[in-house]
Amino acid sequence: MSTPNAVSPEAITLIKRFEGCHKSDSKGNYKSYRCLSGRWTIGYGHTQGVRSGMSATQEECEDFLKEDEHVEDDIIDDI
Question: Smallest Cα–Cα separation from 51: which of 71, 31, 36?
């Protein structure tokens, strides 16, 4: 059985479904929050470089998810 070399669209759908994207201001932007593990998070579970008081548009949250997908691709490649 071969190891996949990319995160599948189905996996992205699952990430979005389970992580969610928490909106919290009147402009429709998403605010950073502390997740259950205590890490600052924004968008679909993005944590790298996130600080208190950050906000992001829907498009930025999608970009964060793509960035995180590339990190996952690198981890998969190292296996």
Answer: 31
CB 19 within 8 A of CB 30: no
pLDDT of residue 58: 94
Alpha-carbon torsion, ordered 74, 41, 50, 39, to 10 deg: -90
pLDDT less than 70: residues of the chain: 1-5, 71-79
Judged on CB neighbours under 10 Å (0-12, 13-18, 19+), 15 is middle
- The tokens of 58 are what? 């829907």
Token pair 């964060």: residue: 64
